[in-house]
Amino acid sequence: MAVIDGSTSKAAVQLSPTMRNGRLAMMLVSEVVERLSPTATCKEFCDLVTHHIHTCYKDHHLSRERLIAHPEERLTASVAVYSLYHEEVWMVGDCQCLAGGEIYDNPKPEEGRIARKRSVIIRQMLDEGKADVDTLRCHDLGRDVIVGEIVQTCHSQNVQFAVADGFPIAMQHVRHIDVSGAAEVVLATDGYPFLHPTLEASEAALAAQLRDDPLCIHHYLATKGMMQGNVSFDDRAYVRFSIEKS
To answer: Tens of pLDDT along 205-244?
Structure first.
């Protein structure tokens, strides 16, 4: 079982003419998961993902030097994988897990600070009458201010936090969760701000957030809000499954 979240594209370079870089990254990771040996270790999985994405770079003639200098151009994804054989969940990047009544996450170290900065900027604009919610949902002026910092954090990929991006994954930042004692497990991407034991409850919490705070600047802070024409502030995946003990 796995949930995979391709990172929002932050560069003008798009490798595939039919999809954005984040979706392509998700597809590549998915291909590895589909053919992964049931007994594979976390390290083996990470090495296969890295090789598969790196091969895509070579196919598109993207040099290692270019991608080191411009990590925002990498195909980047976060993934949470459940291994029945090892009775573990592996979290590479910003994903969530609910097991045994405990919620586990693996956030990027700078994400919270940047989200708080965007919140302060937008709330000040609203208080001073320089913008309103509807106009900010068409053009997020707060994100315009922080986008440079978001791009700068890409230089910390697989240094200060782990992601799947075709470069050696920083294994010390991959979170291992022992779920051997859990009867049920939920895996989800960070598109669910409030994770619950059921999809219905998680969707209801998300709907309340989007209704009350579509810009994501009050109770739940994010680096982007729900833009006009979108159904949420971020894409999302959720899977819940039970574990039968032999």
So the answer is: 999 999 999 999 999 999 999 999 999 999 999 999 999 8
Task: Calculate the CA dihedral of residues 136, 6, 147, 153 and round it to 10 degrees.
Answer: 150
Q: Diameter of the chain by CA atoms? A: 62
Structural tokens at position 27: 């597809």
pLDDT digits (tens, 9 = 90+) for 69-81: 999 999 999 999 9
**Two tokens at 163?**
């992601």
3-class SS of residue 115: helix
Contact 238, 199 (CB under 8 A): yes
Describe the chain by its helix, strand, coil percentages, rounded to 5: 40, 20, 40
Interatomic CA distance for residues 107 and 93, integer angstroms: 7
The answer to whether 94 and 174 have CB atoms below 8 angstroms apart is no
**Type of residue numbered 189:** T
Q: Order of strands across the sheet with 2-6?
A: 2-6, 77-83, 88-92, 175-178
